[in-house]
Amino acid sequence: MTWLHLYARFLCAATLLLIAAGGMVTSTGSGLSVPDWPNSYGYFMFSFPLSSMVGGIFYEHGHRLIASSVGVLTIGMTVWLWRVETRRWMRRLGVIALAAVILQGLLGGITVLYFLPTAVSVSHAGLAEIFFGLTVCLALFTSTGWRRSGAASTHDAVARDATDVTTAALATALPVVVYVQILVGATMRHTGAGLAIPDFPLVFGGIVPPAWTFPVTVHYLHRLGAGLTAMVVFTTAGRLAMRQRDRPDLLRPAVSLTLLVLIQIGLGGWTVLSGRAPVINTAHVATGALVLGTSLLLGLRVNRHRFPDARQADASPPHAAALTAKEVARGAAI
Amino acid sequence: MQQRNLWTALSILALATTVACGGGGEGGGDAPAAAPAAPAFDPATAGNVSGMVMFDGELPAGEELMMNSDPVCAMSATNKTSDTFVGSDGHLGNVFVYVKEGLEGQRFPPASGNVELNQQGCRYTPHVMGIRVGQTLTITNSDPTLHNIHASPSANDEFNMGQPIQGMTFERTFDTAEVMVPFKCDVHGWMNAYIGVLDHPYFAITGTDGMFDLNALPPGDYVIEAWHESLGTQTQNVTVATGQTADVSFTFAQ
Ligand SMILES: [Cu+2]
């Protein structure tokens, strides 16, 4: 495990923490407790007295502090990649992550200054998940497992196995399905529709809502989306378990994903039944990010052979060997 | 501030022009412009509306406010009970009673003085209040902690200002009549207040005795509305005659 990979993992974990902190801001309704931005009550962000972090300010200012730290970590990641990474697309990915985190900070500021318009708040939530996905990518692509699997292409046979195109297609679609489900959830959250359907698992005592107001509709879509996501996850995991037993790198995320989806549905129901208790609600947001991150990991591993740093099984071995040697040298240099 | 004065002047000018051109529907400002459609009303012809707001049944107990998230509030606040349901012996307080219809097109002299909204003991005083269009609202932080003052009107401009230091004040005006403008503090989620903005002076807030008076109304037919933050609104029609006091009572229930 290289230091760069360790750093990428740390950035990924910090981003998950940031998403949870942001989740607490919305769950506790503290988004406007610090009216100005980028300053906090006129103070430069880092000189705002900790003793003043009372009430909603604890969540909002805390979120800003963690966000700034993640921003700094991302600058570090981008610079590090730019200096040592041999894969050009990876260096670019670092720059994209940096651009995403900067844009995310601006969206956060704009939503405060314009009193949390739904479109901006939902974009802020949506971009948060994209940025988290980018940090998952950075961690995965800097891992030795990923780099090794690029050479051992006989192993990533899933997508090219004609009998298992369906599994590969499902695993590829999975992160997209999860992301859309998260966007629906974010829309529900930022339009205050989280309790529009007050019971769970039933819907107003039945299966279909008796009336279709916007809050009820978006809430119902999020529940339908949960069912769809669970179906895709279970099917993908089931197929992988049956057909790809020799691929622990796929089986492990598939099992995690299955468990996470079950937990996530439970947390969603608990959020409704608890009347949106902030901690439960936020756990639901954070677990949603974990589901996205894990499904992304799975989708990327299944599509390993499509990446520029993959070497096809039929590629000329000397070339592959030369590259590997170069990479080893590079790794040693780090 | 200077810019705001400029805008006010421009708005008055625009309004005066509109009125002169025969436009100027309802909801106009308090502009002291020459308005031919609004003959000055003779105070000698005035009548009154007086009455009471009652609550049918037992008034819900005031909710206990959890102030633990700010140690200053938790320690210094003397009153930690919600202002939503106040009253005694079947009378309901904190009800905003006002003339909703019947004064259209009439102009009244602008109010004198400011209206004050104080943040003290981590609550708003008063909890329900009224203000005229264009009248200055002075907002003060009397607490040794931070507050943000976040108004979320629908007809007026939304604003959110921070008052981190004890003794800070600032001033605001509202351009358009609106019942009610909600105020809240996002630092202290339990802090809220409501301000009714009107283009006439006929409004009142009931005390714990539920009583209200709307005095010195021009004779005529009116719709009187009573607004409560959680019980909703009720309206009644009333005719005001010179020198008479019309009686209007409202009864809310849950
Ligand atoms: Cu406050």
Topology, number of strands of chain B? 16
* Rg result of chain B: 20 Å
Q: State the helicity of chain B in percent bands.
A: under 10%
Helix residue percentage of chain A: over 70%
Greatest contact between two chains:
A-B, 19 and 20 residues
Mean pLDDT of chain B: 87
How confident overall, as mean pLDDT of chain A? Answer: 91
Catalogue the unreliable spans of chain A: 313-326
Order of helices and strands of chain B: HEHEEEEEEEEEEEEEEE
Domain module tally of chain B = 2
* Gap from first CA to last CA of chain A: 11 Å
Strand order within the widest sheet of chain B? 5-11-10-7-8
What spatial form of chain B do the alpha-carbon principal axes imply? Answer: globular
Question: How many separate domains make up the residues of chain A?
Answer: 2
Secondary structure elements and their pairing?
The complex is a heterodimer of chains A (334) and B (254).
Chain A: H1 3-27, H2 55-84, H3 88-113, H4 118-141, H5 144-151, H6 165-190, H7 214-243, H8 248-273, H9 278-302, H10 317-333
Chain B: H1 2-20, E1 47-55, H2 71-76, E2 96-101, E3 115-120, E4 123-125, E5 128-132, E6 137-141, E7 147-151, E8 159-163, E9 169-172, E10 178-184, E11 192-198, E12 203-205, E13 211-217, E14 220-228, E15 232-240, E16 245-252
Parallel strand pairs in B: 1-16, 3-6, 5-11
Antiparallel strand pairs in B: 1-13, 2-12, 2-14, 3-4, 6-9, 7-8, 7-10, 10-11, 14-15
Copper (II) ion is lined by residues 122, 147, 185, 187-188, 191 of chain B.
Give a summary of the structure in a few sentences.
The complex is a heterodimer of chains A (334) and B (254). With 334 residues, chain A is mainly alpha-helical.
Describe what you observe in this structure.
The complex is a heterodimer of chains A (334) and B (254). Chain A folds into two domains: 1-142; 163-302, no CATH class. Chain A is mainly alpha-helical and 334 residues long. In chain A, helix 2 (55-84) packs antiparallel against helix 3 (88-113). Chain A has helices spanning 3-27, 55-84, 88-113, 118-141, 144-151, 165-190, 214-243, 248-273, 278-302, 317-333. Chain B is built from two helices and 16 strands. Chain B has two domains: 1-32, no CATH class; 43-252, Cupredoxins -  blue copper proteins (Immunoglobulin-like), CATH 2.60.40.420. In chain B, strands 5-11-10-7-8 form a five-stranded mixed sheet, with no helix packed on it. Chain B has a four-stranded antiparallel sheet with strand order 12-2-14-15, with no helix packed on it. Chain B starts with a helix and ends with a strand. Chain B has helices at residues 2-20, 71-76; strands at 47-55, 96-101, 115-120, 123-125, 128-132, 137-141, 147-151, 159-163, 169-172, 178-184, 192-198, 203-205, 211-217, 220-228, 232-240, 245-252. With 254 residues, chain B is mostly beta strands. In chain B, 10% of the residues lie in helices and 39% in strands. The A-B interface holds A 28-36, 41-42, 52, 54-58, 60, 115 and B 69-73, 145-146, 148, 150, 152, 158, 160-162, 164, 185-189. The complex binds copper (II) ion. The site of copper (II) ion (CU) has 6 residues of chain B, from loops.
